[in-house]
Amino acid sequence: MTDSRLLLGVCGLYCGACYHYRASFPEGRHLLEQARLQGRELTGFTCAGCRSDTLYIHPGCAQCKIRACADDKGILHCGLCSEFPCDRIRAFQNDGRTHHLDVIANLEELVAKGPDQWLSEQEQRWRCECGAAFSWYESHCASCGAALQSYSSESKAR
Asked: How many of the other CB atoms lie within 10 Å of CB of 102?
C-alpha cells in the first residue's frame, strides 16, 4: 500500500487532516500544545493514518469497528462494500461530530474518482493558500495566520 493510502480512512475520512496525524509533524506541534492545555494525555497522541500500524490510542481509532469490518471483508474502504451505506456508517455520520457529516459523500466520491485522485484532492483541500497543511478544526493557519475553510468555520454556518 502506498504511503498516501495510509491516510484513506476506511469510513471516508481523510486522515491527513486529523489533528492527531497533523500533530506528528514539526509544523503541527501547536496541536500537541493545545491538547496539553486541554489536559489530554500526550503519550500515543500521534497517528500515522487509518491504514497504518501506528494508530492513536483513542479507542475510536485503535479499536474501530468500521475498520475491522472492512478488513474482514478485504476491502479498502466502505464505499466498496455491497452493503454500503450500512447502519454502522450511517450512525457514524450522524454521531454529532461535524467532521463525520461528509463520510457517505466522501465514500461515494472515492468510488467515482478512485483512491489516488480522491487522496490528491483531499490533500489540496486541507492546505492553506500558503501551502501549509491544517487539520479539520483549525480556524487559522499556524504558519501564516490566514482564515481557513475548516469544519470550525463550516459548523458555525450550519
From this structure: 16
Question: Per the omega criterion (within 30 degrees of 0), is the bond before 115 cis?
Answer: no
* Cα separation, 127 vs 111, whole angstroms: 23
pLDDT tens across 120-136, in order? 999 999 999 999 999 99
**Interatomic CA distance for residues 44 and 74, integer angstroms:** 27
Alpha-carbon distance values, 31 to 21, 38, 45, 99, 121 (Å): 10, 11, 10, 17, 23
* Chain position carrying cell 474501530: 64
User: pTM here?
Assistant: 0.85
Residue 23 in grid coordinates? 500533530
Helix (H) and strand (E) counts for the chain?
8, 0
